[in-house]
Amino acid sequence: MRYLNIKVNGHQRTGTHFVAKLVDLNFMNTGNYLNCYSKTPHEIRKKKLGEIKNRNNAIICVKRNWKDTSLSLFKFRERLGLDVDNYEEFLNRTYSDMWKKGTCRIILHGDGIENDIIKKEENHKEGLAPVSSKFRNIDMKPKEYFEYYYKWWKSAEWRYSNIIIISYDLFISDFKNHMNYLSRFLGCNTTNFKNVKYKVGWEAVN
Questions:
Q1: Rounded to two decimals, what is the model's pTM?
Q2: What integer pLDDT is reported at residue 131 of this predicted model?
Q3: Least confident of 15-29, 94-108, 130-144
Q4: What is the side-by-side strand order in the sheet with 103-109?
Q5: pLDDT of 156 over the 80 cut
Q6: Gap between the Cα atoms of 30 and 162, Å rounded
């Protein structure tokens, strides 16, 4: 493999936990996919550039179709701090207007996860947590921000050879070919791939 580290990021609710788990299963083998999961995946910051410019890092940005992403965002709105009653209203208000400080009940599925707020068995953690503040200052409607986010990453992909944007949808519909595509980018000879067999990542508690 041509990279020492692999960092997986993407917009919220696009399958980043799933892809990070795939990466760990097939290329890194650490036993804890959060080692591949970028700690600041959802914000475009100057400090992110240090991670990008380090050519020992492969940067994987996950993209999912907007319709499924938006429905998942709306379903997960309590965790994201979005005080909105229906899907159409969600689509037509800015994130900063919808955001409200508070707490919510969540479930986190994963492996080897340690969390100061949620204290339960290793692979299934449930509890009360503060809502995410990621959208607090985003003065754009959901689709506007989604398009802005991936426009930024597309530009970065053109500028830096260690960045790739990959499709969550293709991992679901064409697993073998899309894994081969990722493997070639990473400089690996792997051709026999393992898939994720259980839920990973955040789940809303209704």
A1: 0.85
A2: 85
A3: 94-108
A4: 124-130, 103-109, 201-204
A5: yes
A6: 21
Domain range for 41 is: 5-204
Q: What is the CATH number for 197?
A: 3.40.50
Total residue count of the chain as it appears in this document: 206
Looking at the structure of the chain, the number of domains it has is 1
- Residue carrying the six token digits 């293709």: 170
- The identity of residue 172, as a single letter, is I
Q: Is the pLDDT of residue 198 over 80?
A: no
Structure confidence at residue 202 (pLDDT):
67
| Sheet of strand 5-10, all strands in order from the earlier edge strand to the far edge | 5-10, 57-63, 163-167
Which positions ≥6 away from 11 have C-beta within 8 Å?
Answer: 42, 62, 63, 64, 69, 146, 149, 150
Of 38, 41, 206, whose CA–CA distance to 126 is shortest?
A: 206
One-letter-per-residue 3-state SS of 93-104: CCHHHHECCCEE
Q: What is the DSSP string of 59-78?
A: EEEEE--HHHHHHHHHHTTT
Q: CB of 41 within 8 A of CB of 137?
A: no
CA 60 distance to own-chain centroid: 10
Judge residue 200's burial from the number of C-beta atoms within 10 Å of its C-beta, 0-12 exposed, 13-18 middle, 19 or more buried: buried
Are residues 191 and 176 in contact, defined by beta-carbon separation less than 8 angstroms?
no
